[in-house]
Amino acid sequence: MEILDQLRQYQDLFAKIELYHAEMGKRNDKVEDFEKKISEMLTERAPHEERMTQGRALARKFESDVADLESKITKSRDQLASATQASEYSGLKSQIEKHESEKVALEENLLAIFSKIEEIELGISDLDQRLANAKEEYLELKSRVSKENQEFESEISQLSTPLEEARSKVDAEVLEVFDRLQPGLGSNILVNVDGSNCGGCHVSLAPQILERIRQKKEVVFCNFCGRILECR
């Protein structure tokens, strides 16, 4: 039937453009997924930086405290050297031991902090390397997708005029059916009978429906999905 031939021509062009749009969408989704991945990595980096800053600040404080204790120990030793009374000597000796004990504890804590800082630095370095690799891969992907999408857009542009011409030739009532069903069923509105079933929803067709399709005298619809049926 000429009326179905005209619809088929329009549907084929519409489906091809729809496919190009879908392929562009898939590629854009890949770019967006990569952008999310990089954003997550940057978010992951922030707490490491914060811990690093806190660790360095604490290390500076402990270094200052150690230096202060060393100064006190030196001063007490100088006083100890000139002590003339046993009580004074004993007090200074005890004070020096106390400061030295505190200094040892601080130095142990300081070593632990330096070790943790080194661990964080290694983690940040590893993350930065992965981030650099991801950014490089992202730029390559974005460039490739941009080029491919330009090619798709060129194809779509070339098909736009033939699509409009084909649409103008389609019977108005048939076109109304296509426009109504397409958003929900996609571009496959005119379907070939699959044995004795609808080629779209695969519901079994009644013998009288199949006979009407074979006669090719009228437009026949699937009673279940509403698609237009043909037998080629």
Outline the structure in words.
- There is one protein chain.
- With 232 residues, this protein is mainly α.
- The chain has 2 domains: 16-165, Helix Hairpins (Orthogonal Bundle); 171-232, no CATH class.
- The chain is 81% helix and 3% strand.
- It contains 4 helices and 3 strands; from the N terminus they run αααβαββ.
- It has helices at residues 2-81, 86-169, 172-185, 207-215; strands at 190-192, 220-221, 228-230.
- A 3-stranded mixed beta sheet has the order 1-3-2, with helices on both faces.
- A hairpin with a 6-residue loop joins strand 2 and strand 3.
- Helix 1 runs antiparallel to helix 2.
- The longest helix has 84 residues, at 86-169.
- It is rod-shaped, with a radius of gyration of 40 Å.
- The chain starts with a helix and ends with a strand.
What order do the helices and strands come in, and which of them pair?
Blueprint: H1 2-81, H2 86-169, H3 172-185, E1 190-192, H4 207-215, E2 220-221, E3 228-230
Parallel strand pairs: 1-3
Antiparallel strand pairs: 2-3
In short:
The chain is mainly alpha-helical. The protein contains four helices and three strands; from the N terminus they run αααβαββ.
